[in-house]
Write a structure and sequence with these properties.
359 residues, mainly alpha, 19 helices, globular
Length: 359
Amino acid sequence: MFPVNRSFALSINIFLAYLFCALYLLLGNMSFLILYFILGGVNFLLLYSEKFTLKWVVFFLSLSGLFIFEFIFFSSYPKQNAYLLSLLFFISSLGFALNLVYNLNRVFVSKVLLIIYLVFLSFVFFKYGIFLADGLNTVFFNSSRNIVSAVLILLFINYLLCCYFDGVKTSPYFYFVVFLFSVFLYGRSGIIFSFFLLLYYLFFLNRFIFSIVLIFGTMFFLLYNYNVNALWEATSFSQGLESARTDMRREYFSGILANIKFILLGQNYYDCCYTIVAHDLNAHNSFISGHAKFGIIHTLLVLILIFWIFLSRNFYIIFLFLLIMIRYFYDELGLFNLYDTTLYLLVVISFLMRRKQRV
């Protein structure tokens, strides 16, 4: 078969994979997640195979039927198969991170993925309106509006990282659009992090006049065309920082501190954490989730990663890294989970840039 351009093949692969991931998030059908995993493996084939052709992609896709059949043994996702799924999340996320790093079209691909998601959110706002926060909790299957908002932030950071790696200027419009959409998604963390990204643009990229005009225009829109009190209540800012997540953290840390064994090996939610159990075993915290599954090893890996990133002394990389990690703190998103591509992309880019500086 006629060989295809490597970057083109990588681009097609990631577009298909994100389509399957989107279908999984929207419909909750595990078959689409299996397809996502398979395409994550295809990345390594496309990157490291001497002769890569479309027939290999077709071959891997044809195996999907067998994997879907096999999936009938996954009777209680994600509880009984947490370790297998963590491994698959790691492999696939690393594969897509490497896809973007070695894809010559990475800026275009990351930009298009972000735009597609923004268009999708526009239809969501058209369907539910921008005044009904509860309706947004039904956008993703079994996920709240906070996850919808988190995906937006992570896709935006993907775009920022790809632009930074290529030395390409980012489009100024995205900073404002992402912030505005985050406000309409009512997620506190999404609003805060998108605002920090907007502040970075305002104070470090020297577009003051254009920025000031747009920021005041946004404020005018919010003040005169929106019920600010309703926004304050819907986003739960009026409740401060206290939430069920606070109880989850308190219960889990109290549980593991009761015995050194739990610190080393992790703690069973049923033995310590009523609030987490009441929320379908969702700890709403990537660090707690990782420790519960892998124990102190997971925590040590995270600490090593934090130390290594800070050693880079790259303010922009550290800034984006902190945004990702703090966002992980408020939901089960990464650290061997579905939304790790952004973190691995940042780590690989940091590694390659530091290695280049040493040469």
